Automatic annotation (TrEMBL), chains A, B:
Binding-site positions, ATP: S44, R47, H126, K145, Y154
EC number: 2.7.7.72
Subunit structure: Homodimer.
Keyword DNA damage among UniProt keywords: no
Domain CCA-adding enzyme C-terminal: 268-411
Cofactor(s) the protein requires to work: Mg(2+)
SUPFAM superfamilies: Nucleotidyltransferase, PAP/Archaeal CCA-adding enzyme, C-terminal domain, PAP/OAS1 substrate-binding domain
Chain's role: Catalyzes the addition and repair of the essential 3'-terminal CCA sequence in tRNAs without using a nucleic acid template. Adds these three nucleotides in the order of C, C, and A to the tRNA nucleotide-73, using CTP and ATP as substrates and producing inorganic pyrophosphate. tRNA 3'-terminal CCA addition is required both for tRNA processing and repair. Also involved in tRNA surveillance by mediating tandem CCA addition to generate a CCACCA at the 3' terminus of unstable tRNAs. While stable tRNAs receive only 3'-terminal CCA, unstable tRNAs are marked with CCACCA and rapidly degraded.
Name this protein carries in UniProt: CCA-adding enzyme
Amino acid sequence: MLSQVRPSPKERERLRLISREIIAKIERLAEERGMVLQAMLVGSAARDTWLAQDHDLDIFLGVPENSDLSEAMELARLVAPEHEERYAEHPYVHARVDGFEVDLVPCYLVDDASRLKSAVDRTPFHTRYIKGKIAGLEDDVLLLKQFLKGIGVYGSELKTGGFSGYLVELLVILYRSFPDVLRAASHWRPDTVLDLEGEGKKLHDEPLTVVDPVDPNRNVAAALTLDKMLLFSAASRSFLDRPSLEFFFPREDEPLSDEEAQARMDARGTMPLILQFQAPDVVEDVLYPQMRKAEESIRALLTRKGFLILRSDVLAYRDRAVMLFEMEGWELSRACRRTGPPVWEAEHVARFLAVHPHPLSGPYIKEGRVVVEESRKHNCARDLLAAELEGLSLGKHLSEAIRRGHKIYAGQEILEIRDREFRIFLAQYLDARAPIY
Amino acid sequence: MLSQVRPSPKERERLRLISREIIAKIERLAEERGMVLQAMLVGSAARDTWLAQDHDLDIFLGVPENSDLSEAMELARLVAPEHEERYAEHPYVHARVDGFEVDLVPCYLVDDASRLKSAVDRTPFHTRYIKGKIAGLEDDVLLLKQFLKGIGVYGSELKTGGFSGYLVELLVILYRSFPDVLRAASHWRPDTVLDLEGEGKKLHDEPLTVVDPVDPNRNVAAALTLDKMLLFSAASRSFLDRPSLEFFFPREDEPLSDEEAQARMDARGTMPLILQFQAPDVVEDVLYPQMRKAEESIRALLTRKGFLILRSDVLAYRDRAVMLFEMEGWELSRACRRTGPPVWEAEHVARFLAVHPHPLSGPYIKEGRVVVEESRKHNCARDLLAAELEGLSLGKHLSEAIRRGHKIYAGQEILEIRDREFRIFLAQYLDARAPIY
């Protein structure tokens, strides 16, 4: 088991060599330009807590507080001529070097982690803290990381909303072993507060608070969603009860064939609606939150009009954005109620009646209000979505992308989407099976 | 107009004669038997506020407080050999005499209306109060009664939930004329309090309080529903704005033909569900409240399972009971969600998962709870109703009646019910048009 997650001596040696090389190159270039700059390996590579096959190198380029990050960025560009520029709070350089994914991140060298100029400035403090405490616990970190990966809650980016590497390390330091973390997590409930150094008090309205030992006003688990937190808790319980390698290495989902998909859909008897459009050219950490917001807006539209949603999900792959709404009730009568003002508001009543001169039924009085029954504009969910979609405010990026072109698939039509990524997504969506017993 | 509602001199003379005759007969019989008994004409006939064609005579047989009502009842039976016995709080005799509907009601003669032995004992006080105040206002009472009748809110029995004759008389005495009652009612809102004698304070949680001048702790309008009260208010406004005889004498509804019914149903695109059974042999004032309760129970069942109801209504005619549920959404997917306990309730979760071993999807975690998706038992409203009806507690009378036999009609099948009464009900139901503009 451990052999599958622990990098081999050869892998470690390669990582060490490459990182040393890159750091040497940075220092040489800085010296040439007379810059005060400190290059440092941070993250899991620095802490010996990286998973085999995870070939990520985070190298920070620290400059004094009073200098300018742009010079460091300039230098990072020179280190890796083949690179792309990415943006978090500040720009940084991403490059592939000898099969490693290398991030070269400019940051400020500050004295006190609670007085940062930028969020990345905190990372060196994290590395220092973990390095001082982690000795002997590295394997437990690897096991926990792989466990979280296996159950689908590893990664604090917004798409996942799971556990960051730093959070994993803190949990292992706190509870002293992989099984002890699981035992503790088994009992978690919302509003759990953990603190390695202090007395621990809830900082914000987040389900799990883990006080950052280098900055006590920060919650390391701020990005963790309630459901991912509790999935880990339930999976921990299940694993302790019936341990299995499958938690770490679940069977990979195969793309659904037409026949399989058809059979699953028949059994469910639902009406899947898919909205597909070209994804705007933004990173996942921007795209997914926007898609989630749009998902909520469309859910609200459908629900407000009386259609019932069983479940929904979103997916971005390649240049595509897909939003799936699985309808539990998708057709309604033509006739619907329009509830007007209270009867005693004479002017409002008069105006309401003037606007509804020829109802199917009514006007009548119900619970103190004037009511008419008339024809609804759209009596099936697909028509409603098609008609109202462009009128929804779905955020600038998505609204534009949808206006440029989109397609709605309903029922069996969704099988016209044959992409492997989509069919795997569909398999996972239909399973929706978390590793809990 | 007035000539249509005001009894002719000949009609009045007949009523006077007949009531005098009956009272004389009662007094004679009482004398023969040595009973202390006071026979009196009460109600609208006594007050000259009866509508032409309304041939109702209420004659009370008052006996001293310390005697027994059963003797008076015995006597009432002798007065009208052809009669039926009815029950309110106590039994009374109902008979047809020369084209009049005569109620012979035993009651106690009490000194103070606030210290009654039975609700009917209050009536003589009402008659005395009204007789002392109504002189010159009789025509206004007749107009208001006919207006209320025309808009469908006259009658305080439980089926109607409208205005009693006594309430009408009090309103006219308070506001001094028919148009002034309408003008005042135009401005009514819930929690209106009227008091002819005192300062008027709300007695109970009823939308309109009219303090009974002969018993200040009683609300004369207690039976009036919010919607009937406000319908009168809105119709008053509409009538004052555009007076029309139609308010008093609306066009009678014709029974719907198959073709008309079909056309109306097509336009609505709803799914009517009708539950029909033999009405239990109880009076309307018992039957209707029970049917309304059963209507609520069935609405709750359908709604709880995700089906949408546009409107519902009930009807009793001859020996039949009919409950109509017009469905706005009547078909759902096979798949449905079952939401389990919060994740941290380990034992409950384990039990929940054991009970749902092979879901269509899941288990997964949603908003802190374990969720599975499985097949619902009934995915259309008709099947649900058919399967669960006998398990609902619909009150003793109705539950038994339904168990003895019932039929469910769905969609076009409802046209198999060809009774004239039902087809008129259907026409009124589909119109649902209150006289408000």
